[in-house]
Every structure is written in C-alpha cells, then in structure tokens.
Amino acid sequence: MMSALPQPLLGRDSMSWYEELFNQDYDRVYFPTFTAERNTSESDFIESVLQIPKGGQVLDLACGHGRHALELAKRGFFVVGIDLSPRFIEMAKQNAKEQHLSNAEFVVGDMRESYFLNRFNAAFCYFTSFGYFPDEENQKVLENVAKSLLKGGMFLLETVNRDWTIHKVENQPRRWDEVEPDFFMLEDISFNAHTSRIHTKRIIFDKGQRRTMQYDIKLYTHAELEDMLEEVGLQVVSTFGGKERSPYSVSSPRMVIVSKKQ
Known about the structure:
Elements: H1 17-20, H2 24-30, H3 36-50, E1 57-61, H4 67-74, E2 78-83, H5 86-98, E3 104-108, E4 120-125, H6 135-148, E5 149-160, H7 162-171, E6 174-180, E7 183-192, E8 197-206, E9 209-218, H8 222-231, E10 234-240, E11 254-261
Parallel strand pairs: 1-2, 1-4, 2-3, 4-5
Antiparallel strand pairs: 5-11, 6-7, 7-8, 8-9, 10-11
Helix pairs in contact: 3-4
C-alpha cells in the first residue's frame, strides 16, 4: 500500500514530553477505559460523520495503538495510522497481524511532517492529540492534513472543549485516582490565560515508587480552530459536543469539528 516513511527527528539531547508521556504508566491508566464497546461506538461516529465511501482510504493521525484504525479496517476501509511512538506502532502492527488486517498499515511518523499528497478520502485526529506544539507547528499539522486529503475529503478533529476545561480546572485543580491497588495517580492542573495552554503535573505512586511527568497542551477556541482550518482550505461543516452528536456549547466536555477540503 505504501512505501516506508521517513522516521521522525528524534536526535535531540532531551526528549519532549509527548515522546515520554505515552509509556507503560499511560497504558495502565487509560487502556482499561478503551473498551471494545467504546472503540466501536467512537468508530461508528467517525465513519458516519466523515461519510467515508466504501473501500475508501483513511488517515488516522496520532493513531496510538490503533484502536480506531483497526476497527475501521475491519469494516473494509484502507487505513494508514501514524504515531510518533514506536512502541504504539509496534502494538498496532501486531494487532493488525493477529486480526489478519492487510488493509491497515501503521508507521512511525511526526504529524508536523508532510508524507502524503491528495491521497485520502478522510482523516481524523481523536482524543486530544492536537495542540501539543507551538502555534506555528500546530498550524503546520493542519496544513499537512489538508495536503493529504483528496478534494472534498473530510477531516474530523476531536479534542477537549477549552471553555469547559477552564471551568473544571478552576473548580478542581487537583485530581487523585486509585487506578489499581497500590497504583495511584495525582494530577495538578493549571491554565495559563496568557498562553491558553493547560499544564499538568502528573505524579504516579506505584508500590512505593514515585514517578513524575509534566506536559502542556494549547487549548484553542472553536473560532480559532475554524480560522486555522480555513487558512489551509478546510471549511467547517459541522461541530458536535461529543460522539453522541450532542450540540456543541460552552458546557460540552468535548469539541468535535468536522471540516471539508475545498
């Protein structure tokens, strides 16, 4: 289906948070929530709103271990998943092999790099995988998405709702969870109103051991994202407050923007 892609530029002296966050602690916290029912219902939503034609080609940007890409491949679509994590990509490849899905391909890649031109019927970026970088690099991500789509191709961007998140952080800046017996997660969360970035300090307590990780994500308003999408030739056609197709409002926990390449 596709020739080998260039590898992301990882030859830096220190790794960025998004190269360290998605480790085995992340697996233990989030994987139990990625149930088969959840993956199916989210894939139903993605397939429906993107109006993917039968046998169409789909790009899963920041695909993780491939939970959506694999589900869509089962439905007969040709899916390419890209993620910066070699570990996640290996997991996705192994799952595709075990499920005999030759129409799902997974590659290590950086969403800031352009790999495709006028190829896909649809693309999506799900579960707050956008906003990791400075503004100009986030804009480059959208530019690359637009380049990868065929004319008329659809793009779904799913992320947290900035307005709802700010309210939640103001009322509950600290979160404490017992993920497993003797495995606890503490998060201190703050929002910088000047940069519009949300900063999280995550502390893991695992059988007496303590591990700390910090990360921050740029939260855009709907109007800002609409302008950014239109700048690269993607016109917003609908917005939802979640996969249930609820109306989008300031009280929606999630924001799903669907756009179309002009």
